[in-house]
Amino acid sequence: MDTVDKKSAENMEDLIRKQEYIINQQKRKLASQEKEIESLREMYEKKRDDLEIVTSSTFWRMTGPARFTLDAAKSFFRYPDKKELIGKGIRALKENGVHYTWARVYSKIYSINAAQEMAGIPLFSEDELRKQIEYSFDQEIKFSIVVPLYNTPEKFLREMIDSVIDQTYANWELCMADGSDEDHAYVERVCRVYAENDDRIRYRKLEKNYGISGNTNACLEMATGDYIGLFDHDDLLHPAALHEVMHAICDEDADFIYTDENTFHNVPEDASVPHFKPDFAPDNLRANNYICHFSVFRRSLLEKAGMFNSEYDGSQDYDMILRLTEKAERIAHIPEILYFWRAHAGSVASDIGAKPYAIEAAKKAISAHLKRVGLAGEVEVTNGTGIYRIRYEIQGNPKISILIPNYEHYEDLKKCLDSIFEKTTYSNYEIVIVENNSSSGRIFSYYKKLKQEHDNVKIVKWADKNKRGFNYSAINNKGAEYCTGEYILLLNNDIEVITDNWLEEMLMFAQRKDVGAVGAKLYYPDDTIQHAGVGIGLLTLAGHYFRNVSHDNVGYMGRMIYAQDMSAVTGACMMIRRDVWDEVNGLDETLAVAFNDIDLCMKIRKAGYLIVWTPFAELYHYESKSRGRDETGKGKERFLGEKSRFLRRWQEVVDKGDPYYNPNLSLDREDFAYKPNPGKYSARVVEKPAND
């Protein structure tokens, strides 16, 4: 045998040995899991029989309240930051009383228990995972998973590496750069053993600790893959993570991919903070790093964006994700929990306050991002958390036309206008009132007084020439003809201003060329939420996020306290640039009462613009909480007809699902409640808007 053949044979034998090692490792795991399943089955059957006897007893029913209290205590003591929770509880008791505080505690416990129950349900069965191993893609993609190491606890380190080895997609390399100190020499020993047994594992011991960015850059220098995946040294990947990312690449030609994630303490099955994310939303990302884990991107994007920058250590991933998404063309979101973020003392997953420098680094990263994309604004921290507020500079002094339809309703209109005149700090506005066939002398006397006292008020009469009855769309379209401002603000007559800079807060977004409409945060008179954005598909067609929730609730993952992109906002308070209004031809007059504002937002989005909702423009909306849809006679007939018309136009959008609402969240409620089981969903891709 010549030298070449001998070398080839040796290489083949070496490859076979490595494959046998991996296969045997998988067999051992499967055997162990089968034994555990059998043991659990036997235990379950015995406990089920015992439970039937116990739960049918009178004693069990009598002790229900005591058992709930005990369960609440157990849930509480699972938390590592008990002092913080106690402090929050005491403050809530002082400020809001027992009833409100108990309601919040009950809601929290319910959410934790629901999340942990959900986390215990496998996303893929063992059979499905085996099929993934055998699956053949039409592309050969190699992933470089980069992991900077620094004094990683041995247990966490081994579990992290094992979670990569367990991937059902095998074409990967794990690149680890180690800056650990001498007291943690085991990190090198453990990694070298793994590397000797699997040549996909690459390890480099650094001369010193270069910090999180420097260590990550050392990993990137080792990487040879087509796509890069960012992975923390103490976290875990779901076995199907790379397989699902491959589908996003092959099926959708994605150049940046991210997944949903969950936060756990000991094992993934105790995870209690599932983050079901929206699809790519630039305003959400500027407010908080919601993309986070698991992020994978094409190597060419890294070449355009540049390496990690130590100036942003603590929020280096945030800075990198902002830079990468600026360059990306097709951003895919996989709405499946494929990443498990470990929460332990000192980790950001447990509390961002554990690393206060991370907040300052994030502010700097957002500021640098704004400068790169040509937006001027100051970045602030919201509620002392990892959520940020941008105060965009208002360009010039554009005129805003506030458009208010009115029929009778003297008291409502007067309250609305008084609040505008008394509180509004922005001066360059006009008010166009569209008079809709009122008959009382009182309202016309009020109109006359308004015109005498305010030279920026116009009264426009709308006549129902076709005798079609009330038509919100036609009334506003008529009023828009008399608006002379660069911006039109649709406003109901039963609105009362709360924040004096409400116009500035909306204008700062509406002035952006990539934004088509802006909505505000509206409250019922009892300070509960009336409107915090509109979700398409909620409650069969469209629902208001967080309706009836307390005004001081931060919402799911903080979504009630930061400006963000939405599919739609209510026409009760909506600001639109005049050129956008004209481009989409205003409101559709065939939708006289229902869905006309949602349809307007759909048209704006179809034209390539974003819809932004801001919580920093706050107003009361005196719409009755008990007000429902028309359910009788002609009203019901009209409503059903308009609903049918809306669906014929936008059925495909409704079926696809709201891009800003995760499919793992319930469509039957408006408070971001979880669906009972996490789903399997294809990647959802956002192409960067033409106006971006």
Describe the fold and architecture.
The protein is an alpha/beta fold and 692 residues long. It folds into three domains: 53 residues, no CATH class; 227 residues, Spore Coat Polysaccharide Biosynthesis Protein SpsA, Chain A (Alpha-Beta Complex); 283 residues, Spore Coat Polysaccharide Biosynthesis Protein SpsA, Chain A (Alpha-Beta Complex). The chain is built from 20 helices and 23 strands. Helix 3 packs across helix 4, helix 6 packs parallel to helix 7 and helix 12 runs parallel beside helix 13. The longest helix is centred in the first third of the chain and has 53 residues. The termini are far apart.
CATH superfamily of the largest domain: Spore Coat Polysaccharide Biosynthesis Protein SpsA, Chain A
Major sheet: size, sense and barrel closure?
10 strands, mixed
Regions with little confidence, pLDDT below 50 for 5+ residues: 74-85, 349-353
How would you classify the helix and strand content by structural class?
Answer: alpha/beta
Overall morphology = elongated
Distance between the termini: 63 Å
Total helical elements: 20
**CATH class descriptor name of the largest domain:** Alpha Beta
| Average residue pLDDT | 87
Oligomeric state of the chains?
single chain
> How big is the Rg?
29 Å
Number of strands: 23
